[in-house]
Amino acid sequence: MNGQGTQAIAAETGFEVVAEPSVTSPSGFVAGGVHAGLKRKKRDLGMIFCEVPASAAAVYTMNAFQAAPLKVTRDSLAVEGKLQAVVVNSGNANACTGERGWEDALKTRREAAGLLGIPEHRVAVASTGVIGEFLPMDRMVEGLGRLVKEVGKEGHLPFCESILTTDTCTKAAEVVLRVEGRPVRIAGAAKGSGMIHPRMATMLAFLTTDAVIDPRHLQHLLREVTDETFNMITVDGDCSTNDMVLAMASGRAGHSPLHPDHPEWAAFRAAFAHVARELAKMIARDGEGATRLVEVKVTGAASREMARRVAKGVAGSNLVKSAVYGADANWGRVFCAIGYSDPEVRTDAVDLYIGDIPVVRGSRPVAFDEEQVQARMKEEKVNFLIDLRQGEHEAVAWGCDLTYEYVRINACYRT
């Protein structure tokens, strides 16, 4: 994929959605992926490389047991806020591995920097896979040597494949907009299927753009957008040790630097958020064993925080997720989740729609056609609309149904 496929114009947003996205579409970026032997057969070592030092930003899991690669990446970014490469391996999380894990992550960074001829602090590292096992560094080093030779403009798909674990598909998104009349591309690739309850989760996402933006403004933007997108998805309520979202901006588009007071900042922010949102939804839809994407929209909340708590509480409820799997219009499960998500919710005011069908008004049930509601719950995306009727704030969260397959996958994850 080269990112130059048919584009669907989103006139109301000011950007175009690229039908064949590629993380290498923004000017200056190349990528690749190889099989290094961390997994049995599939690609397990990938890289995104920028030809110039790129402004960079990252957000990380809130799990106390943060994996060594996250700490090394944070160390890299602290030097000047710029990166040229990110090295990602799957099959091994390098988490809960103590001093040796830290040294292995540092060695990965050092080896990559040497092969690429760049300073060590311009390399980030990320890992995903089984916790508590040491990286086979002989395979990592040998694989890095081959990987550097494989990295190129056509390396989008090999990279996307190299970062997968239990995912059933690769995940990518891209948009193009104009800033000061110049084309600017924003693209992203991600992985994630289980242990998804970000603040972050066992998900990794990498965004590339050729926009001109200072690392400080990129960091602020990434944190804001992550709260609206990646931190609003849930698959199973488990917050992992290895989550990371990382953004790199090459500056190759050539416009004046973007910042919150730039006249086209809002358009750029909307485009950036679209890419993150699409990746987040793909992760939720590809939840382990999932058959349906669940979207929960909350309106009429007293605060943004209330809206987010309720939306994510409903999307993450195992009872709601089980009801979706069975196409059971048991709206009581939804109300239960609303009630424990925020104690300040008015219990006499809530409206609930499943799809476009009202099932509750003013916290009281209304008559509905059971078969029609079941039909909505059998669609590929199941929508819940919750109006709390106590304010002007809203939020959206995404999740998936809970199936027998989820248990099967996780009952034998290591075996």
Automatic annotation (TrEMBL):
Compartments (UniProt record): Cytoplasm
Please provide the record's keywords in A-Z order: Acyltransferase, Amino-acid biosynthesis, Arginine biosynthesis, Autocatalytic cleavage, Cytoplasm, Multifunctional enzyme, Transferase
Catalysed reactions, semicolon-separated = N(2)-acetyl-L-ornithine + L-glutamate = N-acetyl-L-glutamate + L-ornithine; L-glutamate + acetyl-CoA = N-acetyl-L-glutamate + CoA + H(+)
Q: Provide GO CC annotations from the record.
A: cytoplasm
Q: Which GO terms describe its molecular function?
A: L-glutamate N-acetyltransferase activity; L-glutamate N-acetyltransferase activity, acting on acetyl-L-ornithine as donor
A Pfam family that the UniProt record links to this protein: ArgJ
Gene3D superfamilies in alphabetical order: arginine biosynthesis bifunctional protein suprefamily, ArgJ beta chain, C-terminal domain, L-amino peptidase D-ALA esterase/amidase
Annotated pathway, please?
Amino-acid biosynthesis; L-arginine biosynthesis; N(2)-acetyl-L-ornithine from L-glutamate: step 1/4; Amino-acid biosynthesis; L-arginine biosynthesis; L-ornithine and N-acetyl-L-glutamate from L-glutamate and N(2)-acetyl-L-ornithine (cyclic): step 1/1
The Enzyme Commission number assigned here is: 2.3.1.35, 2.3.1.1
Describe its function: Catalyzes two activities which are involved in the cyclic version of arginine biosynthesis: the synthesis of N-acetylglutamate from glutamate and acetyl-CoA as the acetyl donor, and of ornithine by transacetylation between N(2)-acetylornithine and glutamate.
What is known about its subunit structure? Heterotetramer of two alpha and two beta chains.
* Protein's UniProt name: Arginine biosynthesis bifunctional protein ArgJ
Give the taxonomic lineage as stored in the record.
Bacteria, Bacillati, Bacillota, Bacilli, Bacillales
